[in-house]
């Protein structure tokens, strides 16, 4: 494998730090060109120095001086603001692969900028495909820019499709069920933030952990799968699989089902995206079939977790509705994390916002940006009462 020059958008988050774990194990194969963070200036500084990054960008412009003073003596270029991240994606010709791991909708424009410049994008950030999947995929095709999935579920599907030339009959997206799989529905209104972010299988940031607890994350993944693999939402089925060893499955018209299995560890799909089409050694626990005891599968309870049904309905409606759903969810989840609303208020607020969204059948980027802004304003009023 030839050495790859990489950029990590969101290097201080869960995916970003695990990606750097992969780089740390294979320093001879990666050259870190760019690292970005939103607010975690101290970790960004440590990362940039350790990996001799050519450039670092801190999105929070108020933290620029701190980062500049720490990195300038090391010869590392420092910039600030989201516009700098977008400009770096558009103008840099010394980056081969971009890992898009920023949290939320703000990752859309940097991802599009990277694709427009023809860079391969390993996408871990769900929201760009959820909010603007058609635009993202059309941009990738227009500029011949590969998109490599990083989510464990989509990586599993991607791996199951290697060497296949037959059409997909069905995609089975597996889900652990989150921390409240066995919690009675009447108790959900009283759950705490600490309980919601305590995922049984994965260690993730607060936002994605809450999304996993509501199953909105699985709804997002259904929408992502539609765009990444060119299937209708009717061909994507969510399967609750608490063991989280089978990361997803694909069935074909002859009845064959291909599954990808491994112990839960995000470094595997991250490394596969960074090194594709090659596989490299990775020190993670191996599947011990004699100790697993068995696999279980069940259907999700959409009456208990309505976010999943909201996501399916949004994809069926299409246009700017998935964008509205995402915007409302980001605001509602943030409000829950900040103690402003209850856990069960999240789907109620999302549904209200989606119902009030002015439908645009074929939104361009400006239409997506306008929808995001308008729905955020509406969701903020609903969460604060102002």
Q: What does this entry show, briefly?
A:
With 386 residues, this protein is an alpha/beta fold. The chain has 16 helices and eleven strands.
Describe this structure in words.
The structure is a single chain. The chain contains 16 helices and eleven strands. It is of the alpha/beta class and 386 residues long. The strands form two sheets. The protein has a seven-stranded parallel sheet with strand order 4-3-2-1-5-6-7, with helices on both faces. The protein has a four-stranded mixed sheet with strand order 9-8-10-11, covered by helices on one side. Helix 6 (127-142) runs parallel beside helix 10 (216-229), helix 9 (206-214) packs across helix 14 and helix 14 (321-337) runs parallel beside helix 16 (365-384). It catalyses: 2-C-methyl-D-erythritol 4-phosphate + NADP(+) = 1-deoxy-D-xylulose 5-phosphate + NADPH + H(+).
Category by helix and strand content: alpha/beta
| Main pleated-sheet profile | 7 strands, parallel
Q: Please, what is the average pLDDT?
A: 95
Looking across the biggest beta sheet, what order are the strands in? 4-3-2-1-5-6-7
Order of helices and strands: EHEHEHEHEHEHEHEHHHEEEHHHHHH
Helix share of residues?
A: 40-55%
Features of the shown structure:
7-stranded parallel beta sheet; 15% strand; 16 helices; 4-stranded mixed beta sheet; 386 residues; 11 strands; single chain; alpha/beta
């Amino acid at each position: 494998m030839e050495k790859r020059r990489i950029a990590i958008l969101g290097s201080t988050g869960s995916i970003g730090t695990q990606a750097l774990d992969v780089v740390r194990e294979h320093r001879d194969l990666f050259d870190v060109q760019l690292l970005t963070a939103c607010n975690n200036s101290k970790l960004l500084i440590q990362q940039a120095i350790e990996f001799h990054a050519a450039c670092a960008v801190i999105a929070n412009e108020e933290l620029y001086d701190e980062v500049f003073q720490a990195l300038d003596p090391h010869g590392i270029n420092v910039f600030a603001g989201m516009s700098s991240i977008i400009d770096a994606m558009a103008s840099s010709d010394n980056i081969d692969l971009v890992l898009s791991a920023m949290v939320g909708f703000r990752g859309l424009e940097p991802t599009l900028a990277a694709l427009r410049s023809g860079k391969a994008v390993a996408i871990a950030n769900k929201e760009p495909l959820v909010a603007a999947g058609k635009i993202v995929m059309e941009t990738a095709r227009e500029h011949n820019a590969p998109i490599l999935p990083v989510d464990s579920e989509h990586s599993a599907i991607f791996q199951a499709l290697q060497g296949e030339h037959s059409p997909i009959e069905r995609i089975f997206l597996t889900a652990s069920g989150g921390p409240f799989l066995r919690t009675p529905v009447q108790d959900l209104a009283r759950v705490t933030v600490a309980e919601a972010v305590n995922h049984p299988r994965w260690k993730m940031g607060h936002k994605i952990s809450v999304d996993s607890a509501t199953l909105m994350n699985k709804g997002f993944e259904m929408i992502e799968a539609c765009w990444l693999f060119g299937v209708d939402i009717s061909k994507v089925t969510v399967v609750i699989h608490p063991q989280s060893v089978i990361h997803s499955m694909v069935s074909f018209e002859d009845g064959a089902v291909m599954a990808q299995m491994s112990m839960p560890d995000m470094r595997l799909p991250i490394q596969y995206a960074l090194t594709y089409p090659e596989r490299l050694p990775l020190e993670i626990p191996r599947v011990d079939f004699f100790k697993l005891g068995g696999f279980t599968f069940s259907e999700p309870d959409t009456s208990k977790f309505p976010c999943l049904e909201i996501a399916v309905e949004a994809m069926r409606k299409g246009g700017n509705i998935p964008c509205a759903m995402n915007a409302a969810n980001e605001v509602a989840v943030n409000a829950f994390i900040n103690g402003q609303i209850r856990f069960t208020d999240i789907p109620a607020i999302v549904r209200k916002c989606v119902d009030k969204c002015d439908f645009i059948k074929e939104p361009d980027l400006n239409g997506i940006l306008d929808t995001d802004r308008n729905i955020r304003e509406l969701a903020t009023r609903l969460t604060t009462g102002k």
